Amino acid sequence: MYVGQSKPMSIEYDFRVNSARCDDLNGALKSVYLKNKGGGAFPEWHVDWVDVSYNGYDYRLVFNEWLTVGESKTKYVSARWCSQPSAEHGNYNGGATHDSIGRLRCDPGYELTSSSNTYYCYGGYRYPKYPSATCTDINECLDNNGKGPCDRFNGGCDNNEGSYDCFCNIGYKLEANRHTCKDIDECLANNGQGTCDAFNGVCVNSIGSYRCQCKAGYELRDDLHTCKDTDECLDNDGKGPCHQVCTDQLGSYRCSCREGFEMSAGGFLCIAPCSEDYGPPEHGSATCADTSTGGRFCTVACNAQHEFACVPADGYTCDLEGQWHEVGGSGCPERLSEDAPWPDCSEAYFGFGFPRMKSEVDFYYDGDCQSNVAAIIEMFERLFNNLGGAASSDSATGNVENINVDCGNSARSSATTNTRSGPSFVVQFDVVAVSTLPSDQVTQADQPALVFLLGNTAREIQGKIASGEFSMTIDGRSAEGESFAVTAPPTFEADCQDGQMTVIENFSAYCLDCPRGTYKSANSTTCMKCDYQEYQDEEGQSSCKSCPAGTNAVFRGAKNITDCIPQCVGDVAPCADCHLVSGKFRCKCAEGWAGSSDGLICGRDHDMDGFSDVPISCGNETCIMDNCPGTYNPDQPDMDHDGVGDVCDEDTDGDGVLNNQDNCLLIPNPDQIDSDGDGVGSMCDNCVSTPNPDQANSDDTEAGDACEATLQEDIAKLCENEPDGTYLSHPRDCSMYVQCHQTGHDAVISCPTSTRWSQELLTCASSDLVTCD
């Protein structure tokens, strides 16, 4: 175009315009204002349009123009142009006047799809030079392994149109800058307990999570939040950490000792007092001392003129358990005294004990022996009594007894005498040494002197024979002693009464009264314990005394009538096993009996469940009768508290419906409501709204399998599926809810009781199968 010419001329002028905005240019423009590059302004420039054509990209305008000099003032004519281009997710800035340059600017979160966003405004029309340039969303989350500008350690990035959102992992929350995550201290709530047990729990916060612990004496339940008491007494056969008796308490336990034991300073070990409660043997003494191992060692002895009914052990030791043991063994076949580890002493009578020596003397005699036996015996007794002091002493005398004459034997030669061979007889006799002291004054020390007396007597007889002085005249003929022999060594004997036991030792023999609690009959050789229905409170008795009617002794060998007590109910004794422990008797009801803990009142227990079949009175102690006699039920469950045990109760829950008709056997439901009609009452149905007569429950949760299947159906209906057909829940592992995304809102479904969401299993599972880190 040439400016300054005065006549009209036809020219071609190319305008590049946005056809979307300028779809009708013919006649639309009356004049344009041309910018003078020199800084001035041209007068109004009129154009007459000749032709306008469009070739799909450019408009071709053909027009006539002329220049008219007008008035001196400049007249500006506003040109009409196409409306400013618009862009999705952006806007055009600049280029408002002709020949100016503008640029396409994208909204925050978008970027250009082309490397240039420049456009030009030609001749009053504005349009982009690069119409293909558009704005597209920026994915801010691509960097940092998909976490973009968000917290790369404890969070994540969600891209959206024109923006992005930062989120935090479970256990964290966004800070005010909306980008970084900080740990949530779940323990701040509830005075530092968080969601943990408010009474016995401890909340421990950790980075991104927390855990619940329990105070000493408690342990976590399966829900990992609430606490239950720990029964410390379950281990070690019910003794737990204790030595003897463990009693569980809420959050703790208490150690105690059996009766007769003392608790040590540490509170765990029970120390037996051993013999502190034992008296010495009756008519005797006990010498005891503590040992380095914590027990005791004792030796026992009897008073003068008293002896043990059996040979005691060399000593007795007591261990920490209160049990006594013999050292070296004893001669007691069984313990005669039940109230001490050693036997009692009884009065011994040595005056009735004596030694006997069997002897014989050969005599040479050529007379008629057979016709003169009586004379021979008489003459021999004179010979013996004429012996000197050897046959007697101040404390004893030697007596001859049981003289017997054996005729027809030949005289035997002696090494010390020149005996003759020929007709003879043999006199057989016993020499008995008897104390000259009163019987109650003879002691065991006196008895060896009797043995010595026998020896002296034998030596004197031998001396008399050797010197020819031991002879006698029978029927006018001389009978001369040829030899002497002891045919049996001296043995002790004792002449004891009923109720006394004969004790024979090497150099002693005596009679011993049987101790209290025992007796000796005429045809027995030892003292015997009195039986359960008897007692004996005196020594040296040949029988026992009967316990009063209706009473029995708690052990054999009772020494007092007070040991006889009412005991066995509905049967005869014995019904208890009693043992000596730490100086006192400990009894318990025998097998087939049950009753008081001390074993003193027992009733028959045919089913062996530890409860008496008949009512029994246990004094100050409550004894419970078996609620199902004849049927073993040691726990005695009685759900409806009607006194009839569950194992034999025809209506276990007491709802008035017999067990064989009750649709909920263990929960009272007199109306027999069954919501889903599956034959299982709603009160005990593990899936109330879904029929499941088999009550299948493969994961052992409170909800049955049928309910869990229904849950899966609900989730499938309410939750949007991922491309692989699964769904993504929120929150993830360990939630008690299924919270999944729907269009426009979230759906929340509660997990069944005792279950939590498992992201791995994509279902609500038992709490112990879900990781809750």
From TrEMBL:
Keywords: Calcium, Carbohydrate metabolism, Chitin degradation, Disulfide bond, EGF-like domain, Polysaccharide degradation, Repeat, Signal. This is chitinase. The keyword Glycoprotein does not apply. GO terms for biological process: cell adhesion; chitin catabolic process. It catalyses: Random endo-hydrolysis of N-acetyl-beta-D-glucosaminide (1->4)-beta-linkages in chitin and chitodextrins. Gene3D superfamilies: Chitin binding domain (2.170.140.10), Laminin (2.10.25.10), TSP type-3 repeat (4.10.1080.10). Residues 183-228 form the EGF-like domain. Belongs to the thrombospondin family. One of its GO terms (molecular function) is chitin binding. Its EC number is 3.2.1.14. One of its GO terms (cellular component) is extracellular region. It comes from Branchiostoma floridae (Florida lancelet). Pfam families: EGF_CA (PF07645), Ephrin_rec_like (PF07699), TSP_3 (PF02412). Residues 716-773 form the Chitin-binding type-2 domain. InterPro entries: Chitin-bd_dom, Chitin-bd_dom_sf, EGF, EGF-like_Ca-bd_dom, EGF-type_Asp/Asn_hydroxyl_site, EGF_Ca-bd_CS, Growth_fac_rcpt_cys_sf, NOTCH1_EGF-like. TSP type- repeats lie at residues 637-672.
